[in-house]
# Entry
Amino acid sequence: MKELHESFQSSSSMKLTFEKSSASIRLIKIVTDETNKTTDDKQIPPPPPQKENTTINNIQERFLQVLGPLIIQDDYLVKHLGLAADFAYVRGKYLYSKGCFTICFRIEQCAQPYQIFFGCMASKDPLKELVFKSPSAVGWFGHNQVHLNGSCSTNCKKYNYHSTVIQKDDEIQLTLDCIHEQIRLFHQRKQMLCILPVDIKLVPFPWQYLVVLYNIGDTLRILPNI
# Structure
């Protein structure tokens, strides 16, 4: 008791609090400032989960990782520099597992027939040859091709996708919707909206967007967020 008294007298970080009670014996607490301090080694709790209508608008995507004859200029423009038509791959900086985000592209150069792939893939998988044909990728290519977890279809009526209408200077919006487990492609000039489901067992979160250029000189730019 003597040691407790001395500690209290010598410390400026202690105070006495009296619990209000109708009982004849009241509870006395000794509270120190250390109780309310957070140390660096304590884990900061994660932020609350995003609501289902959350839309991520505070980040600007860019080109980051490439495979094949591509060059990135200023993070936002990518160009096919091959000496012959060949698959060239690029994916973005950010990973997506919550919310909904739209990336806007402008086709600054586009040889015919149109052969550019827009879609998404599981970020855990490496960027590799023909990755857009793998079970872990989903998206739209040239020749009216829809690639869905390793399968390919050219059924325009079923998927409402017509790659033959896409040309130079067109703007394409690619939406990664983690809330509804789908991706959407919107062709601005033709007002063409295409939707594909994403099987998260085959394409688990987090996702990355995936773009594939095939024709020599094809050039793509990421536009500011809408």
Remarks:
- Residues 11-16, 21-55 have pLDDT under 50 and may be disordered.
- Residues 63-222 form a domain with the Jelly Rolls fold (CATH 2.60.120.920).
